[in-house]
Design brief:
Blueprint (H helix, E strand, L loop, with lengths): L5 E5 L9 H15 L3 E4 L5 H12 L4 E6 H5 L9 E5 L2 H11 L2 E4 L4 H16 L6 E4 L6 H12 L12 E3 L2 H9 L12
Parallel strand pairs: 1-2, 1-5, 2-3, 3-4, 5-6, 6-7
Helix pairs in contact: 1-2
């Protein structure tokens, strides 16, 4: 089982509809702080990202923001983090977050959140990293994605065992426990 001291969380820079996503971000930030797991995230004070960082900090957690130069210049950097790393490009930012993390969580978010999560899932599948990844399935947000994954399996583009290569939970403690207790999928990617 992996030792998880740092989790990178990908999530929206918007808050989403209603307040359920904001509450979920705060609950996850608090849970990480309570378990003394360092949070690495996109470095802004906006949207779910800001709520996540604020809750982790309020709980005495350690929070590192990794942000691009462009967003920093625009004034988007959270001013109360334990550490901030400013990278020249989004590609450099993503690479650095992967390096810093022992595991990954995707909360609800937009295309950037989905792209970042899919990249770490792919890197795990290809064996380039061995770090568990999970979806924080607030309000069933990731059900359509998991339906698509099931469709990939049905159409023989993905081995069925690879559905278990990600942890999907709707409660932060269960999600963190799933990452801590994760057993990697060893089925080869290629089906023929």
């Amino acid at each position: 089982m992996p030792i998880i001291r740092t989790i990178a969380v990908y999530c929206g820079s918007n808050t989403g509809q209603g307040d359920a996503y904001l509450r979920a971000a705060s609950e996850l930030g608090s849970a990480l702080a309570e378990r003394d797991i360092r949070l690495v995230y996109g470095g802004t004070q906006k949207g779910l990202m800001g709520a996540l960082a604020d809750a982790a900090l309020a709980g005495g957690g350690n929070v590192t923001g990794v942000i691009t130069e462009r967003l920093n210049v625009k004034g988007h950097t959270h001013q109360h983090l334990n550490a901030v790393e400013i990278l020249p490009t989004m590609q450099a930012r993503k690479k650095r977050m992967i390096e810093l993390a022992d595991a990954f969580i995707a909360m609800p978010g937009g295309i950037g959140t989905l792209e970042e999560f899919m990249e770490v899932w792919t890197l795990n599948q290809l064996g380039e990293i061995a770090k568990p990844a999970g979806l924080y399935n607030t309000r069933g947000y990731y059900k359509p994605l998991m339906d698509m994954v099931d469709h990939m399996i049905t159409e023989k583009f993905l081995p069925a065992s690879h559905r278990k290569a990600i942890v999907v939970q709707s409660a932060p403690e269960a999600l963190i426990d799933g990452l801590v207790n994760f057993v990697p999928v060893t089925t080869q990617k290629w089906m023929s």
